Amino acid sequence: MDGIRVYIETFGCTFNQADSEIMAGVLREEGAVLTGIDDADVIIINTCYVKHPTEHKVINRIKKIQETYPEKGLVVAGCMVEIDPSKLEAISGDASWLGPHQLRRAPQAVRAASNGLVERITGFTSDVKVKVPRVRSNPLIHIIPICEGCNGSCSYCCTRFARGRIQSYPSDLIISEAREAVASGCREIQLTAQDTAAYGVDTGEKLSNIIKGISGIPGNFRIRVGMMHPASVLRDLDGLVEAFKSEKVYSFLHLPVQSGSDRVLGDMERGHTVDEFRMIVERFRSEIPDISIATDIIVGYPTEEWEDFMDTCSLLEEVKPSFIHLSKYRHRPRARSSSLDEIDFRELRRRSRALEELKMRITEEENRRLVGSFQEILVVERGRKGGFIGRTGSYIPVVTETGEPGSFRRVRIRDATGTYLLAD
């Protein structure tokens, strides 16, 4: 690519981060030079569109880049390209586009943008995102997309229109890529997808077998398993519990419930009940006592009444997750729930504030239970404000003053907040 200098900026989830790493790898293999934004000839913005606040951040960032760097080529990639092309056209009509299924065509889009041309590369493909060139954003962490898309039909979701129905990647390629990553010095393997537990629905394979296969790779490393939909976990609950018992797997279960009300879950078309969520949590905790639970909550779904909201609060009080991700409901493009009336914004804000306070109390209480304990942590990076960031075996962040990225350390926890631990 004649040394075209490219800067990539990423919004959103771990899967999006993996997409950016693949684009970087493909571009570098073609002769591009990865650089900072000021030195770049072409800027790639890998967009996320899952939430309303993120949409605004993405749009504002695109506009800011166009104002600040009018002479540079611009490629807009990621979910916005497929979900909301009309809005994207309105704010960046002279930018090239690259859909999330088209990563291998990144050189084509970059060449066009560098020459002042507009190239729109969109639509679905059957490309496999495993065993392809990549440039890791953290040399110690290797992200493996194990499948793309999902089989869900959640009424509030727009991401599925960008990612499509599920396409699981071959298990032998996934395990082989993990083996190569560990051999190259990686200390953390992250398995990512829109729903990791849905892996193999289309091929007859199971996530638990992937985890067990990677756990069998020689070396001292950890495996982080990404978000799992409760309904998908139920198809392989026994296998997943056994797979998570490996000392190489973080005792960390990301299981979004979204609401503590079965009525609202039905309106959301989630495909699971509150009791099924409880049962999965109880099963994992009974066999892996130190496991940490992460869950997601949508506050103020259009049909959520006050009683439903209180059911959600009660569920959180009961389960006491170590990680709680809160989102205020807002309509998303093409989502079926967008035909409903949103609840009053003042009421939405009231419920959100109440849940935020509850979240901080629960997570800080859970973290404070570890104060005074000794934990083995994997140091994964330097802190932005100094020190080092590590993860306990339950994936809880630990800030420590000393360390070496990639090392395992035994530390004493001296204090805690609602989001991280502090170590001596």
Automatic annotation (TrEMBL):
Q: Which domain of life is it from?
A: Archaea
Give start and end of each MTTase N-terminal domain.
4-115
The family database entries (InterPro entries) matched by this protein are listed as: Elp3/MiaA/NifB-like_rSAM, Methylthiotransferase, Methylthiotransferase_CS, Methylthiotransferase_N, Methylthiotransferase_N_sf, MiaB-like_arc_euk, rSAM, rSAM_horseshoe
- Cofactor requirements of the protein: [4Fe-4S] cluster
Q: Where is the Radical SAM core domain?
A: 136-365
**Keywords from the UniProt entry:** 4Fe-4S, Iron, Iron-sulfur, Metal-binding, S-adenosyl-L-methionine, Transferase, tRNA processing
Q: Which GO terms describe its molecular function?
A: 4 iron, 4 sulfur cluster binding; metal ion binding; tRNA (N(6)-L-threonylcarbamoyladenosine(37)-C(2))-methylthiotransferase activity
Name the chemical reaction catalysed here: N(6)-L-threonylcarbamoyladenosine(37) in tRNA + (sulfur carrier)-SH + AH2 + 2 S-adenosyl-L-methionine = 2-methylsulfanyl-N(6)-L-threonylcarbamoyladenosine(37) in tRNA + (sulfur carrier)-H + 5'-deoxyadenosine + L-methionine + A + S-adenosyl-L-homocysteine + 2 H(+)
For the keyword tRNA processing, the answer is yes
Q: Give yes or no: UniProt keyword Ubl conjugation.
A: no
* Residue span, TRAM domain: 368-424
EC supergroup of this enzyme: transferase
Q: What does the Swiss-Prot or TrEMBL cofactor note state?
A: Binds 1 or 2 [4Fe-4S] cluster. One cluster is coordinated with 3 cysteines and an exchangeable S-adenosyl-L-methionine.
Q: What is its EC number?
A: 2.8.4.5
Physiological role: Catalyzes the methylthiolation of N6-threonylcarbamoyladenosine (t(6)A), leading to the formation of 2-methylthio-N6-threonylcarbamoyladenosine (ms(2)t(6)A) at position 37 in tRNAs that read codons beginning with adenine.
Family designation: Belongs to the methylthiotransferase family. CDKAL1 subfamily.
Q: What is this protein called?
A: tRNA-t(6)A37 methylthiotransferase
